[in-house]
Amino acid sequence: MSAFAATALVLSLAAAQPAAAFARELGLPVVAASATIEQITGCITRDCPAVFVNLGDSRFDILTKYDLLRAIAHSTEES
């Protein structure tokens, strides 16, 4: 988990508010678990370094630009 993701998670838990409300408060987009890489990368910018991923059943994950870069680098190493 990246430092940004860990900080956001801790702040969300400390604030005792649902992740979706916290994401909206931070101005982070919420995407479906079925979102494509293209949809996710379209949401991540210099000013928006992460997205909340709605996993369903009120569960969310945080995906950062560093997570995406790591996944892309890993996939190219396997090719």
Structural summary, described in words:
The chain is an alpha+beta fold. It has four helices and three strands; from the N terminus they run ααβαββα. A three-stranded mixed sheet has the order 1-2-3, with helices on both faces. 15% of the residues are buried.
Care to give the gist of this entry?
This protein is of the alpha+beta class and 79 residues long. The chain has 4 helices and 3 strands; from the N terminus they run ααβαββα.
Instruction: Give me the Rg, rounded.
Output: 13 Å
**CA-based shape:** globular
List the helices and strands in order: HHEHEEH
Summarize model confidence as the mean pLDDT.
Answer: 79
Structure classification: alpha+beta
Sheet with most strands: strand arrangement:
1-2-3
Helix share of residues? Answer: 40-55%
Distance between the termini: 25 Å
Counting DSSP E segments of at least 2 residues, the number of strands comes to 3
Largest sheet: 3 strands, mixed
Strand content: 15-25%
Q: What's the helix count?
A: 4
Low-confidence regions = none
